[in-house]
Design goal:
Shape: globular
Strand order of the largest sheet: 3-2-4-1-5-6
Strand content: 5-15%
Number of domains: 1
Number of strands: 6
Structural class: alpha/beta
Order of helices and strands: EHHEHEHHHEHEEH
CATH architecture: 3-Layer(aba) Sandwich
Largest sheet: 6 strands, mixed
CATH topology: Rossmann fold
Length: about 250
């Protein structure tokens, strides 16, 4: 049996403001830092050890991993990849979700956020927010950098990375942790658990809480579970579910 740990980054400053973030490179809020530290404390208490970490290119995932590993007193190699980045929200990036819901309706915002093959409005390539204009991605093929993405698009970049880069290390006996985002982790979980397209919109992943997957010898899930306080996890899941609703 193999065991891996997935963690969605702690609350970012734009999570706190309820903004569409996507590839916008914002850092953690004070709460997000506390969540990341708590995740590390929980993993240390449960006697988890890691040999290598995988992380997105975005600051909030990097910071989460840094604080988490510091609490565990671990120094391990980290592999960074844009393929683990959050879903690109196109022209929605920087807009408030609740305000947008007031403008276009909660149903449309839900589709942009969660429907498997629904893409938000795209960015034009001359927009400074487009990743081709960001030096962080100077080594990535321009044709791979998105204007906007659906979860279906995220699956297409996450799953090959899982198969080609992560699986070989798991099979070699390395203990791994992945620090990423709500949608890149949803993409991986969809693949692992073979979740139907119509059901994946209902999967909510809380920030800063370690999610453990136990896998059989063929890398198929046996079971999965969160580490931490069950009531806290339940509250965070509910809060994420309500992000795209209009404020009364």
């Amino acid at each position: 049996m193999y065991k891996i740990v997935l963690v969605r980054h702690g609350e970012s400053i734009w999570n706190k403001k309820n903004k569409f973030t996507g590839w916008t490179d914002v850092g953690l809020s004070k709460k997000g830092i506390a969540e990341s530290k708590q995740a590390g404390q929980i993993l240390k208490k449960e006697d988890y050890k890691f040999d290598i970490a995988f992380c997105s290119m975005l600051k909030r995932a990097k910071q989460t991993l840094k604080y988490l590993l510091r609490e565990m007193n671990l120094k391990i190699p980290v592999k960074y990849s844009w393929r683990l980045n959050e879903k690109h929200y196109g022209a929605l990036q920087g807009l408030n979700k609740a305000e947008k819901a007031k403008e276009v309706g909660e149903e449309q915002v839900f589709k942009w956020r969660r429907v498997y093959d629904c893409r938000p409005p795209p960015l034009s390539k001359d927009d400074p927010r487009h990743p081709i204009n960001d030096l962080l991605y100077k080594d990535v093929n321009r044709k791979d950098l998105p204007d906007t993405e659906s979860l279906k698009d995220v699956v297409k970049r996450v799953v090959p990375y899982w198969k080609n880069e992560i699986i070989p290390l798991i099979k070699s006996g390395k203990k791994i942790i992945i620090s990423a985002h709500g949608n890149s982790l949803r993409a991986l979980i969809k693949y692992l658990d073979n979740i139907p397209d119509n059901d994946i919109p209902n999967l909510n992943i809380p920030t800063g809480i370690p999610l453990v997957y136990e896998l059989d010898e063929n890398l198929k899930p046996i079971k999965h579970y969160y580490l931490g306080d069950k009531e806290q996890i339940k509250k965070q899941v509910e809060a994420i579910k309500n992000q795209g609703k209009r404020k009364m």
